[in-house]
Design goal:
Layout lengths: L1 E3 L3 E3 L16 H28 L16 E5 L9 E4 L4 E2 L4 E3 L12 E3 L8 E3 L2 E5 L14 E6 L12 E5 L2 E6 L2 H31 L1
Parallel strand pairs: 1-4
Antiparallel strand pairs: 1-2, 3-4, 5-12, 6-7, 7-8, 9-10, 10-12, 11-12
Helix pairs in contact: 1-2
Length: 213
């Protein structure tokens, strides 16, 4: 099974042991048992990754639900292709999603200071130089940011952007800020879920083999 963000991460089960020699079992039954086990394992691994990611970052459960399309089993195994893939979205997340307080400028008022809660269980932090802005239509990341708000920062003269992956220039010295992508967080938790995934894949394959034969 291939658990993918970037780069490709492969989970393989080697040295399976059955109650009887595999060469004594109908190859069609082995193929079906393998397909069923891989697909069930893929669903289970996606759920485990979902929990692990939300254990680090304050994504709502609905944000990573399979129907949202951001963390999905993008390919299920078939009898001809015994491989499943889990894909995590690589696009950075609008930092505005993690704002807990603050208002953009409007009605002649200056923007108010904002508070952020990005890390799960990490408490809130105050973005002293960050502020909310209203983005032009189509700039708000669609369904990720239906309010079309963004978190911005205005750099001082001569100040350099060191991490351009989390910033996008809007105009002049004004930059739009982003939080981690789902793929980025997935790359930190996928190794953690591998042992459990491997154990389940082997157990499920043997269970399906016994059931079918």
């Amino acid at each position: 099974m291939d658990i993918r963000s970037e780069p490709v991460f492969v989970v393989a089960v080697d040295g399976l042991s059955a109650n009887r020699p595999l060469d004594a079992i109908d190859p069609a039954i082995i193929a079906q048992a393998q397909m069923l086990a891989i697909n069930k394992t893929a669903d289970r691994a996606r759920t485990a990754a979902d929990r692990a990611i939300r254990g680090q970052i304050n994504f709502p459960a609905s944000y990573l639900a399979p129907s949202a399309g951001r963390l999905t089993v993008s390919k299920y195994a078939s009898s001809d292709s015994p491989e499943a893939k889990i894909t995590a979205r690589m696009r950075p997340t609008m930092l505005a999603r993690f704002v807990t307080s603050g208002k953009p400028a409007g009605g002649g008022q200056r923007p108010t200071p904002i508070s952020l809660a990005v890390r799960a269980g990490g408490g809130k932090s105050v973005g002293k130089r960050m502020f909310l802005i209203r983005l032009p239509a189509g700039r708000g990341d669609g369904e990720d940011n239906p309010t079309n708000l963004g978190v911005a920062i205005r750099l001082k003269p001569g100040e350099v952007v060191h991490n351009k992956k989390v910033m996008q220039k809007i105009s002049g010295n004004l930059y739009l800020l982003f939080g981690p992508s789902i793929s980025q967080v997935f790359s930190t938790v996928r190794e953690d879920i591998s042992p459990e995934t491997l154990d389940f894949a082997e157990t499920e394959f043997l269970r399906q083999l016994d059931r079918l034969s």
